[in-house]
Structure formats: structure tokens, C-alpha cells
Amino acid sequence: MDGARFANAVATLGCTPADISWRAGVDVLCFGGTKMGLPVGEAIIFFDRKRGEEFAYRCKQAGQLASKMRFLSAPWLAMLDADTWLRHAAHANAKAKQLAQRIAAIPGAKMLLPCEANGVFVNLPESAIERLRAQGWIFYTFIGGGARFMCSWATSAAAIDALADDIEQSINAA
What we know:
The protein has helices at residues 6-13, 55-61, 69-80, 84-104, 126-134, 157-172, and strands at 2-3, 28-32, 42-46, 110-111, 119-123, 140-141, 146-150. The protein is of the alpha+beta class. The chain has a 4-stranded antiparallel sheet with strand order 4-5-7-6. It has a 3-stranded mixed sheet with strand order 1-2-3, with no helix packed on it. Strand 1 (2-3), helix 1 (6-13) and strand 2 form a beta-alpha-beta unit. The longest helix is centred in the middle third of the chain and has 21 residues, at 84-104. It is elongated, with a radius of gyration of 19 Å.
């Protein structure tokens, strides 16, 4: 399982990590750390230890074994302690909901999908997208005007307000 946003899913669903991993039939979870606030790294979790028997060897052969792995591993201890990972994900999800609510109220912006985790998907006029990019906003766009805005563990209320205000101004400037 690609677990880049695993924490966001657990926070949204209000379930245990086991409910959407090994209990659901997942054999291996690649638990991403950067989306939770870690500088680098992913934790690879083998729910069946036999499946991971050659993993360390394969990583070493592929040049993916850091010589000072403990320096990459140490931040994980703090992230997993006291559910910091889940608190970070819940924060990102809450900020995305705030952003979605602000954008949904802007005439000319059309929500493409409900906000279920830390992503907001909205259809914007091409001219608004160009104005936002000219202002320095960086976001992914899909063919046809769909834009994806992602919130993180560090997204602030001020950033939500600034983006929503700039979206509204960019649409109104058309």
C-alpha cells in the first residue's frame, strides 16, 4: 500500500491503522513521513515478516541503505510518540476543510470533489489559474481547469485566508 497519505486517511476515517492496513488485507505498507512533517524517509512495514526477509539485502543492493540510518530513523520515534503523526494529519485535514468551505463560497469556483482529507479539488477559470501562478501560488492542475490544493501539518489559518482571498480576486479580475 502506498501510504503517503495514510495518516490523513486514518484521521478522516476515525479508525485504527490496522483497520485499513493488515485487517483489510494489506501485506506491506510504505508509510510516508514527509507528509507528516518529517524531512525524509518512509517506514516500510511488513505485516508478514516472511515477506520482508530479503528486504534489507535488496535495499543495500539498490543503494538505498543509508550509512547512518539511525539519523533517519530517530525522527520517526518522535513522530510516532503520543500520536503526533495523527495530530499532524488531523490538522492538515481540518485546514483543507476550511479552505474548501472558503472556496465553495466564491462565485466562479466549482468544487470538483468533496473534501475528505487534506486535498481540495476545484475547477477555476484558466485566467484565475494564471493570475494565481503569477502571484506565486504553486499547485497542480488537471486538463480542463481542475486545480488541486494540498494542506499540510504546517498550513496556517493565515495561509488559508490568503489563498482563498487571492482565488476570489483572481476570479473577479476576469
